[in-house]
Amino acid sequence: xxxxxxxxxYMTSAMITLKPQTDIVEAAQTxxxxxxxxxxVLDDHNRLVGFISEKDCLHTVLSAIYHGDLGHxxxxxxxxxxxxxxxxxxxxxxxxxxxxxxxxxxxxxxxSQLVGMISRQSILKxxxxxxxxx
Length: 134
Hints:
two-stranded antiparallel ribbon
């Protein structure tokens, strides 16, 4: 059943990450290139220090329109208090969190290390797969 399916079963471990000092235009281009709705931000020691989303990047668009300013960096706009999940969390629990939180994906952390990402689409794939097995 779906309660026995865990994040680790459906997370992606191949991730695109960004650095805090990355130019926001470059970050947006990377997200577009890889069709990402967001990306984890890691410092030079590979510690998770933030998360940048498409919505965060929209601030740069508005700033450029109103002020002609495209000079933001990822660190200026990223969310610093990142909500994360653990690989052993159940898909059911994470589904409930997606319904409560205003995010499209969660970084997956194990022992203070980023080990993957889980998205709403990943959850839907899990439900689809489990539904076929029943």
